[in-house]
């Protein structure tokens, strides 16, 4: 418009708020009460047809002033062809403001109808005209004072959205990028803040907020590949959902909205990283405000909090779920945590989520399908939800996932089978569960092995668990996993053995459980040596499992095992070896052979622990239990440790070699083994382990004495965080 009323040139398009502001200006100049239309409009208030639009993001449609019919207080009169000429805009502005001030919301509706009629009479697309009005609101809201004028203008926006929600959303979205993005200029940042205020005003209006949310949801789904459009829609959703009471408008599409936001996070995690993307997203770090992922997370938090599911948000924060959700390699773990939290604290949405997930499980979109699979797997923890489908249908689906070439899909299938194993009514499906779980123990993917071990442990925790069957099936499969190179796999395998012993302890005490007893004896040496594992989880799991074995087999060695675990006590280990040699003399060669394998371990503490264990086993072993071949092999490996880089390992190997030499001297080999015996004694002499007594006598073997271990010990004080002041 021409200057005059505001003392400045026309810098913004004529929109809904421009009409309000213009009416107040006319009132001030003409001295007329607000609401009485001017009978003699001022010519210098006319608007030019080509007024410049406000600055918006790229792709926004320039705002142009619409033409309208001139409303009259006594009755309508036909507008001429040049309806935007002198006086027409002023009269329309006064009528608009009068309606808003005199009739409240009803007047605002009448205003919106008047504006719509005027815009439709122009003969152009209404979408473009609504956009012009929204542009006017964006440009003029910052100049309006708080109170009645501002509220009246925002009511015009709500009234327009009541009938034209899609047009209003399309007009606001180009200006709705987060205001603190580095790429935004200062004017665009101001416009973005104004747009956020308009979104919140729409959210407070219960008659339109549901329609606007639906349009934003469709805008987010339709923005595939358009990162800025998706970011604007996500930010707008977050602004609306933060308003108290707005989440109630999502009734009917709440599960759909939640899954769209979570899927959006998956796409962001898998997509290319921008320079402003956070490299690390800690549990207490919300990330940069302009981060697309952080906008989606905040929208998701607002959706859950507004629905009364604050505990879900808290559980996710405590478990690091939000950090996992935005991680490229941990997103599905975050989805599983979210599903578990909702099972525990938001079960009123589980049926809707489950129903919305089923068609997504066959989606051609990779991110949508995997997110749905993870949610489906997590929801199987809820028994009422799992009963929505036939058990056979769920098992068939999970078995199909086991044949997928993608390891992630097989991993989710194993997790689902583990959740089914928790349900007491699935006894008849053990025959279906076991082959899949046992077969996964040989997978190379750590997640698959870990999921299978966890599912087997859950299966053992169920009433009437098949202990004997599992003992037989795990005997050839579990021992290799106790020495697996992956820390998490070792810890889980040891824990599974402990759970198996705990469930079968009744039969072990009665001398039954033959397969389980053999499995325990086969795993005894690895358990003792893994007390010194570099992985704290594996060491603590070994201690727990040994305690279960001691309780089930009644060794009476619990105190000694705990002492070895936390203080590396040679005396306690000597008592353990003495009891085991006495109780299982036929297993001594196996114990020594297994321990010999650990002499080549890459972990220094394990090499030293193996050398010490060999020394005590040799000291307490009867000569009739071992062969010279075994002793020769032991001496060869102990001799190689004389050049070990760890001095503690060298010292322990020297002491243990003396014990093996003393044990060899007590043997009376047959004449056929005379050459081998002489060869062994010659090697002992070179190592300096023979005394001046030679090998003709058989003196009592002294107890080996080892120096203190220089490696870190796991004391009870350290375990409970009660370290004293240094």
UniProtKB/TrEMBL annotation:
InterPro entries hit by this protein: ARM-like, ARM-type_fold, HEAT_Maestro, Maestro-like_HEAT, Maestro_heat-like_prot
Top-rank taxon: Eukaryota
Start and end residues of each stretch annotated as Disordered: 30-82
Keywords: Repeat
Maestro-like HEAT-repeats domain boundaries: 108-213
Gene3D superfamilies: Leucine-rich Repeat Variant
Xref: Pfam families: HEAT_Maestro (PF21047), HEAT_MROH2B_C (PF23227)
Domain Maestro/Maestro-like HEAT-repeats positions: 394-660
PANTHER family: MAESTRO HEAT-LIKE REPEAT-CONTAINING PROTEIN FAMILY MEMBER 6, MAESTRO-RELATED HEAT DOMAIN-CONTAINING
Protein name, entry field: Maestro heat-like repeat-containing protein family member 6 isoform X3
Organism: Erinaceus europaeus (Western European hedgehog)
């Amino acid at each position: 418009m021409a200057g005059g009323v505001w003392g400045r040139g026309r810098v913004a398009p004529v929109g809904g708020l421009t009409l309000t502001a213009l009416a107040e200006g006319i009132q001030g100049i003409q001295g007329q009460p607000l609401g009485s239309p001017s009978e003699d409009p001022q010519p210098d208030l006319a608007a030019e047809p080509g007024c410049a639009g406000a600055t918006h993001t790229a792709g926004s449609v320039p705002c142009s002033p619409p033409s309208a019919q001139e409303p009259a207080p006594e009755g309508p009169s036909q507008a001429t062809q040049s309806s935007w000429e002198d006086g027409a805009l002023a009269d329309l502005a006064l009528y608009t403001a009068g309606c808003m001030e005199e009739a409240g919301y009803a007047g605002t509706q009448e205003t919106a109808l008047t504006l719509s009629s005027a815009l439709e009479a122009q003969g152009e697309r209404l979408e473009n005209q609504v956009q012009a009005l929204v542009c006017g609101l964006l440009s003029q809201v910052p100049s309006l004072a708080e109170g009645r004028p501002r509220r009246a203008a925002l009511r015009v926006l709500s009234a327009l959205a009541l009938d034209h929600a899609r047009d209003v959303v399309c007009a606001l979205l180009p200006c709705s990028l987060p205001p603190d993005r580095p790429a935004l200029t200062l004017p665009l940042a101001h416009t973005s803040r104004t747009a956020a205020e308009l979104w919140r005003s729409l959210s407070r209006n219960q008659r339109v907020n549901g329609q606007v949310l639906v349009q934003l949801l469709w805008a987010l789904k339709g923005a595939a590949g358009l990162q800025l459009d998706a970011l604007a829609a996500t930010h707008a959703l977050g602004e609306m959902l933060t308003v108290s009471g707005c989440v109630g408008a999502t009734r009917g599409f709440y599960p759909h909205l939640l899954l769209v936001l979570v899927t959006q996070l998956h796409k962001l995690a898998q997509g290319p990283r921008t320079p402003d993307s956070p490299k690390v997203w800690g549990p207490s770090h919300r990330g940069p405000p302009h981060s697309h992922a952080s906008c989606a997370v905040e929208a998701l938090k607002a959706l859950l909090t507004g629905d009364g599911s604050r505990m879900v948000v808290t559980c996710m924060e405590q478990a690091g779920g939000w950090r996992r959700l935005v991680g490229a390699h941990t997103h599905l773990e975050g989805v599983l945590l979210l599903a578990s939290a909702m099972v525990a604290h938001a079960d009123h949405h589980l049926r809707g989520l489950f129903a919305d997930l089923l068609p997504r499980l066959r989606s051609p979109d990779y991110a949508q399908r995997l997110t749905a699979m993870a949610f489906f797997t997590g929801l199987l923890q809820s028994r009422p939800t799992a009963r929505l489908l036939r058990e056979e249908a769920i098992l068939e689906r999970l078995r199909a996932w086991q044949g997928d070439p993608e390891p992630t899909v097989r991993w989710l299938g194993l997790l689902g089978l583990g959740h089914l194993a928790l349900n007491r009514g699935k006894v008849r499906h053990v025959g279906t569960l076991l082959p899949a779980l046992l077969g996964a123990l040989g997978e190379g993917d750590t997640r698959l092995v870990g999921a299978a071990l966890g599912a087997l442990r859950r299966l053992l925790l169920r009433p009437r668990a098949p202990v004997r069957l599992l003992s037989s099936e795990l005997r050839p499969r579990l021992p290799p996993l106790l020495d697996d190179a992956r820390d998490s796999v070792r810890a889980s395998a040891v824990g599974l053995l402990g759970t198996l012993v705990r469930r079968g302890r009744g039969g072990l005490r009665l001398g039954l459980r033959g397969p389980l007893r053999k499995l325990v004896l086969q795993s005894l040496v690895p358990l003792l040596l893994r007390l010194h594992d570099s992985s704290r989880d594996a060491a603590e799991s070994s201690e727990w499992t040994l305690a279960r074995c001691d309780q089930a087999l009644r060794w009476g060695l619990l105190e000694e095992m705990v002492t070895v675990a936390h203080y590396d006590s040679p005396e306690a280990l000597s008592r353990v070896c003495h009891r085991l040699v006495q109780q299982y003399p036929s297993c001594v060669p196996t114990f020594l052979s297994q321990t010999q394998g650990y002499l080549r371990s890459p972990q220094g503490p394990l090499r030293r622990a193996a050398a010490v264990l060999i020394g005590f086993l040799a000291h307490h072993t009867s000569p009739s239990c071992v062969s010279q071949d075994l002793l020769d092999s032991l001496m060869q490996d102990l001799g190689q440790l004389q050049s070990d880089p760890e001095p503690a390992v060298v010292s322990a190997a020297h002491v243990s070699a003396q014990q093996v030499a003393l044990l060899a001297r007590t043997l009376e080999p047959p004449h056929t083994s005379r050459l081998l015996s002489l060869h062994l004694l010659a090697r002992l002499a070179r190592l300096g382990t023979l005394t001046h007594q030679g090998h003709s006598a058989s003196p009592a073997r002294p107890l080996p004495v080892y120096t203190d271990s220089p490696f870190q010990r796991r004391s009870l004080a350290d375990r409970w965080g009660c370290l004293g002041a240094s």
